[in-house]
Amino acid sequence: MIKTVPTTPYQDQKPGTSGLRKKVPEFQQQNYAENFIQSIFDSLEGFSGKTLVIGGDGRYYNREVIQIAIKMALANGFGKVMVGKGGILSTPAASHVIRKYKAFGGIILSASHNPGGPTEDFGIKYNIGNGGPAPEKITDAIFARSKVITEYKIADIADINLDRIGSQTVDGMTIAVIDPVEDYAALMEQLFDFGAIRSLINLGFRVVFDAMSAVTGPYAKEIIENRLGAPVGSVKNFMPLPDFGGHHPDPNLVHAKELYDEMMGDDAPDFGAASDGDGDRNLIIGKGMYVTPSDSLAILAANANLAPGYSSGLAGIARSMPTSGAADRVAEKLGIGMYETPTGWKFFGNLLDEGLATICGEESAGTGSNHVREKDGLWAVLLWLNILAVRGESVSDIVNQHWAAYGRNYYSRHDYEGVDTDAANDLIAALRDKLATLPGTTHRGLTVQSADDFAYHDPVDHSISSHQGIRILFEGGSRVVFRLSGTGTSGATLRVYIERYEPDTTRHGLDTQEALADLIAVAEEIGEISGRTGRSAPSVIT
Ligand code: VG1
Ligand code: CO
After folding, report:
1. What is the pTM assigned to this prediction?
2. How far apart are CA 389 and CA 193, in angstroms?
């Protein structure tokens, strides 16, 4: 029943910030997915007879690769596979299932916020037994293996029916098709005061959630409408579609513009939120008030003790390096640890496992906690709702009070998408060459205090991750960060992160881009962005 199939390696299966992401036609090349999955298994030890969790965000090609992964897991010696009904599991739900059932690991099929469809993006990611993305040691091993692989193993069996919940045994291996929502919803009920949120909604507090035709639809329907009592229709675009309705399932001000406009309108609901393709990101908008992800992290951390799951306080906060320093001020006030990691959730795993950090976040709309080992979009939405229910104030009141207490970190990210790869690499290399001579120089009145290429020393396993972004810090606490995306699938994406701290309350009402105008101009000058990329303006501003 088990076939060993000869194959030829590909040289481009290098996992990025979050797994291997490529266009669907690339994944459809002969044995492309099989090679990568076998390379994962070849890089792991000790899984014989153990459980593997498999699920994806439902995008185009999801079902095909789920079948391949099941058959290959069976052939490679796993004892059991748990797969979400219809091949669906949001990224945070997959993380929870791995942890709850003490699985050996999991395979998550997703390209997250990237578009889906026959010519769009697909992705495969491996998560370890703690429920989190595999650390670099493992992803490096997978890549090395993928370059020399000569054969893969697959069970020669019929496709598994993914649409009926229940277990079946094939060749000694159990395949359990599970409800993708149930375990996750139960976990949320443990962490948050659903009764308080339900009362708030009963009093007429209006919530709108845009699932962006992606994986969170069924989760949000069950939790926000069924369990919290929001009126039917509060969850929009709740049917997961293989092409996300032709949109980018990216919850930012560009792709969730309709929600944004509704929240800024005259008769706006009280609370608006959205999530991404695989359910790990969140967008939070109050009536007339957009909350930046960096501020959201800080505010959630400062108020987390209002939710039952965090009532005993936080051990520490972790954020990715490009994320604003707003959370740092909260950690300082609470007298707890603050950790600065490279971009990507895999770097938070050790801090969470060791109990050093409780809440983590990234500027890219990712927030989460030690309840799973991935960022979690709905979790952030529910923590916000729990805080709103307890405080009885509006989102904008809470944000303004936070700025008054801690100061405001004006923050923006400028993305230059689809840039020529060589030009982008040259831009970063040129910045690297300038690092030594930048300190002490003055640009538009801003003096460079220090500049470096961020390297992370993991305090738990002592591994070192270098070249994680060029940081230019100015006197007074402003900074500009340059890095290249590790999740894109065509050309390069240059990300420029801009931040300025403003302690003066009377200056907290400025427009963000105006407040950052000097720094934006300095970033252009030092980075030579337009000259090197040929772009006079970013493609996306968040
Ligand atoms: C981006 C974000 C990063 C996030 C990653 C995965 O990576 O910047 O913060 O962890 O996506 O998120 P990059 O390398 O493109 O900047 V997801 O929701 O795509 O799994
Ligand atoms: Co995502």
Report:
1. 0.95
2. 9
